[in-house]
Amino acid sequence: MHPALRLDEVVSIIARQGLSNGDLAVLARVSRSFTSHALDVLWYELYSMIPLLQCLPPHLVRVESQKADEVTLNCTSARPFTTADWDVFLKYARRVVHLHGASSNLRRPVTIARGEPILMKWDVDQSVFELLCNAPCPRPLLPKLRQLRWTDSTAQNVIWFLRFLLGPSVTELAFHTSSLDVPVLSLVSIIPTLCPSMKYFSWLNTAKLSNYAIRVSSDVACAWDGLRELTCPAISSHSLHRLSSLTFLEDLSINLAEPFPEKLNLSPDSVAFPSLYRLALSSIPYCSLAHLANYVKQMTLYPSGLTLRASSGSENEFTELLEVLSSDSGHEGLEYLRIFEFDTDPMPGVHQLLTNPMLRPVSRLKNMTDLTIDTDRGVMLDDAGILELVVGLPGLCTLSINEQNGWRTRPFAVPLVTMQGLRQIVTHLHDLERLAIAINAESSVIAEDDLKAAARESTHRNIDWNFSLNLLDSRVGSDNMSIVAAFLSDMFYNFQEFEFWSFMGLQSLDMVQDLEIVHEARVQTFRWSQVQSLVKVMQEIRRQEKARWTKGLNSS
């Protein structure tokens, strides 16, 4: 063996050079001097607890098939754990630095009844975690763990197991709670003690917040001075005041607990949030657009990314919020803006709208790269409004309008953006990566010149396989599906698929109760699936023609 390979640093560098798991396993068997370094890299990052559990003998943890496409790891009662069993588990557990969940949606091969391996989802039974609580070693189970994501469905059911994973080495934690009983809140309240060096803390919650839960969330949020990113269910105004003095905080996502403060109370001693880059702001319950606009007006901080959530208001209130942002010179550097509006008290027969004048102020924010707006409004933007928007914001990479709820133009009319309007968006936004709008391809007249223009004006990013297009509740006629497919295949000549009529709010819309709307959704879904099939055929023909021409040129 070359003398250089006897140096630990050299072997570590070799092991970290992107080798596959199989190569690392072979390297671990080559020489004793390689074993430790290869195993460190092999077990450095796990996407679930399953690889660790598979190291245990099969008569302790067995694989059971409970569903057609899923297997579950369960404990057996054949015999108790021995010291040797724990030694095997802990040998690998002490090398884990990043853990991304309890179980994983990644499919792993399973051999059933001596047949061929089948790719199936894996899950872990709660009994396995109860068994691991009895490990004959000091907590935590993973002593080198620095990054932990405990957000999958299995992890939420065994949130209490965090107590056996968290330790002083953890600097990044993300977890999700679906219930907030006393044991869960007691566990959350001691996280700052267990992990004193936290840098990135994300606590997502779908359960109802009590006053005690808000107090726990507020206290935990303010427990670390070196935080860089913070997401928590709710904090008090007093806690916001304390957070504003943090020197290194870059990313903040919070819900201000009731009552929503009339005055912004930040640190008076120095610049509030001196390093803040992204801010997501909301309240419990959702405050009005007018109240949020007043709050934003008071802010003396100007993050590059801003996410706002509020209850639905009048058209004037929506416009006022955008006017506040665009008229303040401090927001000129705003790179992404996301506004989510929720109709918390819907009135039957009352339909709020999103129109061209309401979005006009956004065009002044010239550095914008991401504009996402999701409301319960019916979107009445037309070609002129869209053109004004994209001309004013030429650097947009993401343009998403009502992606969660659709444009909801019924019972008013079909979407007002035509196929020509879609072409204008693509022409002006040279860096576009994601687009979510609704168009009217049902009555749009597409001439041969439009097809030529679509092919001529398509830009370099259209050959990017990652380009994402969502046409929401767009309409297409039964007699022009082929011409629409030709238009799309010319304009987006290398993307794989696009989405349509699949937005999350489709099932919750009031108008879905109308049988006519239900029928229209089914018809349009079928038509757009036909358009997508035609687009794929046209793209394949284009590739074959290109290959034929290339072959002919090469031979000549």
Write a brief caption for the model.
The chain is of the alpha/beta class. Among the domains are: 42 residues; 124 residues, no CATH class; 180 residues, no CATH class. It is built from 19 helices and 22 strands.
Task: Explain how this protein is built.
By secondary structure, this protein is of the alpha/beta class. Among the domains are: 42 residues; 124 residues, no CATH class; 180 residues, no CATH class. The chain contains 19 helices and 22 strands. The strands form four sheets. It has a 14-stranded parallel beta sheet, with no helix packed on it. Strands 2-3-6-5 form a four-stranded mixed beta sheet, with helices on one face. Strand 13, helix 13 and strand 14 form a beta-alpha-beta unit. Helix 2 packs antiparallel against helix 3 and helix 18 crosses helix 19. The radius of gyration is 28 Å and the shape is globular. About 1% of the residues have low confidence. It comes from Coniophora puteana (strain RWD-64-598) (Brown rot fungus). InterPro entries: LRR_dom_sf. This is F-box domain-containing protein.
